[in-house]
Write a structure and sequence with these properties.
Distance between the termini: 17 Å
Strand order of the largest sheet: 1-2-3
Shape: globular
Number of helices: 3
Radius of gyration: 13 Å
Helix content: 25-40%
CATH architecture: 2-Layer Sandwich
Largest sheet: 3 strands, antiparallel
């Protein structure tokens, strides 16, 4: 499974504005307003989706996400970019 950093690098390198991660679907990127599946990406299990979404979170952020079922945050991708994220639960899946 790719890491979140790998997926974000592909997003940045492709010039996409967004990365969408959802259980039971392959990761998708938004280019010129259209969602496109990342080349070669396979559908993610609920466990893989959760692992990717929890990757950049501190322990405190993980607790807040589990309790409130939603979290807004920002973080850096190396020196390439600053990312804003919204993580939420839908039908008990991140």
């Amino acid at each position: 499974m790719a890491t979140l950093q790998d997926l974000l690098k592909k997003t940045i390198d492709s010039g996409a504005s967004d990365l969408h991660i959802c259980a039971k679907q392959p990761p998708k990127i938004r280019i010129d307003g259209s969602l496109r599946t990342i080349e070669g990406a396979k559908p993610l299990s609920a466990e893989e989706t959760k692992a990717l979404c929890f990757e950049p979170l501190s322990e405190e952020q993980k607790k807040r996400l589990v309790l409130s079922k939603e979290l807004d945050l920002s973080f850096s991708v190396g020196e390439k970019a600053r990312v804003r994220a919204n993580i939420f639960y839908q039908m008990d899946t991140v």
